[in-house]
């Protein structure tokens, strides 16, 4: 049973590391969905009328590429840096034309961890327990 659970967890992890395409549809006054969780390497596609509702990044992580589009009906952005990205249609921001996505880097060999968090997996109880250091 323990080996089966380990293999299942490994398969799930490998499946989750595949690049995914996420589609965000928009029309006045909102993006749908307006919040996403993605992985580095994933592709985001916005679909809507950019001539009426321009797209601009309003906040991006350090070293990430700025994005914007004001024409056509489709725009594609490949996420290359982990962090939170915020986007908006500036004229209609007060009406709720804002959104964001958070990107995670699953390639742990390139990620520097600055804490001592530990995850304990309970294979029998089908659960996990995350232990984090106390906040200072």
Report on the architecture of this protein.
The chain is mainly β and 136 residues long. The chain has one helix and eleven strands. It has a five-stranded mixed beta sheet, with no helix packed on it. About 10% of the residues have low confidence.
Descriptive labels:
elongated, five-stranded mixed beta sheet, 11 strands, 136 residues, mainly beta, four-stranded mixed beta sheet, 1 helix
Q: How many individual helices?
A: 1
Which stretches of 5+ consecutive residues score pLDDT under 50?
7-14, 109-114
Helix content: 10-25%
* N-to-C SSE string, H for helix and E for strand: HEEEEEEEEEEE
The Cα radius of gyration reads: 19 Å
Widest sheet, order of strands: 3-9-8-5-6
Termini gap = 40 Å
Task: State the secondary-structure class.
Answer: mainly beta
Largest sheet: 5 strands, mixed
- Broad shape: elongated
The counted number of beta strands is 11
Q: Percent of residues in beta strands? A: 35-45%
**Averaged pLDDT, please?**
81
Secondary-structure map:
Blueprint: H1 2-16, E1 21-27, E2 30-32, E3 35-39, E4 43-47, E5 55-59, E6 68-69, E7 74-78, E8 83-88, E9 98-104, E10 118-122, E11 127-131
Parallel strand pairs: 1-4, 3-9
Antiparallel strand pairs: 1-2, 4-7, 5-6, 5-8, 8-9, 10-11
What would a concise description of this structure say?
The chain is mainly beta. 11% of the residues lie in helices and 40% in strands.
């Amino acid at each position: 049973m323990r080996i089966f659970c380990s293999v299942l967890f490994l398969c799930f992890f490998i499946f989750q590391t595949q690049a995914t395409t996420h589609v965000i549809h928009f029309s006045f006054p909102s993006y749908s969905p307006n919040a996403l969780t993605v992985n580095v390497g994933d592709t985001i596609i916005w679909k809507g009328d950019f001539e009426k509702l321009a797209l601009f990044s309003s906040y991006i992580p350090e070293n990430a590429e700025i994005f914007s589009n004001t024409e056509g009906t489709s725009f594609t952005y490949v996420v290359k840096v982990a962090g939170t990205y915020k986007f908006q249609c500036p004229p209609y921001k007060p009406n709720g034309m804002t959104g964001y996505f958070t990107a995670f880097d699953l390639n742990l060999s390139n990620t520097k961890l600055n804490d001592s968090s530990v995850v304990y997996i309970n294979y029998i109880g089908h659960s996990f327990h995350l232990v984090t250091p106390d906040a200072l």
